[in-house]
From TrEMBL:
Gene3D superfamilies: HAD superfamily/HAD-like (3.40.50.1000). It comes from Nostoc paludosum FACHB-159. GO terms for molecular function: hydrolase activity. This is HAD family hydrolase. Keywords: Hydrolase. The keyword Hydrolase applies. Transmembrane segments: none annotated.
Length: 261
């Protein structure tokens, strides 16, 4: 294999392979209603679209109901985009809430939903155009494919199987692994007897790629930011200024690896 293609391809799931925005909003709204008990449990018409647009500010799941609270409080989209790090703690403080308890509520609501209506829950996930086909071709070409995600591995497996992609459980590193992504990449690299391994990692979170970049023993990993995922224009511009990080479009992703840049 030439250097223009990987021997190992590691992909994030949400924001790279699969778009979970509809599910994110639905579970966040349910959690918001449970915490703040609004008079009307039907979300305003424009709320979902605003949530989708602002999803890149969220780093951890518990922040999603907080984002809805911020929007319902009348905080502008622009302010949320630029001042999210100060808005979140202020809402927690004002309402005497803990991040941990919000996260637990959200997880419990999602677990109940999955337990009572798994098909309905799975149906709210959409695969990005061309991604499934590229995954199938990649596996057929003998490239070792791994999913490295904060989503639970069993759900990743079920969602992929619905699209006709069967990966062994050992190829999916999900939420249950409880390790930073750079540690998993390190393990994948070390598991190869052939030290000329070419490892490429596609992720939609710039901060995650920057953390990998800080690992001196992973300096030969090709870092790729998926520009169709949950990231902002400012983050994409920052990636373009970074010599280690390659910005990739969805149309490029579907093409041969030599087109990835």
């Amino acid at each position: 294999m030439t250097v223009s293609s990987p021997t190992i391809l590691a992909l994030d799931f949400d924001g790279v392979i699969c778009d979970g925005l509809i599910e994110y909003f639905e579970v966040a709204w349910r959690t918001y209603c449970e915490i703040w008990s609004p008079a009307n449990d039907t979300p305003p018409d424009d709320l979902a679209l605003r949530f989708y647009r602002l999803r890149p500010v969220i780093e951890t799941g518990w922040e999603m109901p907080i984002l809805i609270k911020a929007l319902m409080n009348g905080i502008s989209d622009e302010k949320i985009l630029h001042e999210w790090v100060t808005i979140t703690p202020q809402i927690l403080l004002d309402d005497k809430l803990q991040a941990k308890e919000i996260g637990a509520k959200l997880d419990n609501l999602r677990d109940e939903w999955i337990a009572t209506d798994l098909d309905g829950w799975l149906s709210l996930h959409r695969f990005y155009p061309g991604v499934v086909e590229k995954i199938k071709l990649t596996v057929a070409d003998g490239v070792k494919l791994y999913i490295v995600t904060t989503k639970e591995g069993r759900f990743v497996q079920q969602l992929l199987q619905k699209e006709g992609v069967t990966l062994p459980a050992s190829a999916i590193f999900g939420k249950e692994v409880k390790r930073p992504k750079y540690e998993i990449l390190r393990e994948l690299k070390q598991s190869e007897l052939d030290k000329s391994v070419s490892l490429w990692f596609v992720e939609d979170r710039l901060k995650t790629l920057q953390l990998v970049q800080q690992q001196t023993d992973l300096e030969d990993v090709k870092l790729i930011l998926a520009d169709w995922g949950y990231n902002t224009q400012a983050e994409r511009e920052s990636a373009q200024q970074n010599s280690r990080i390659h910005l990739l479009s969805l149309s490029q992703f579907a093409k041969d690896f030599s087109a990835w840049g």
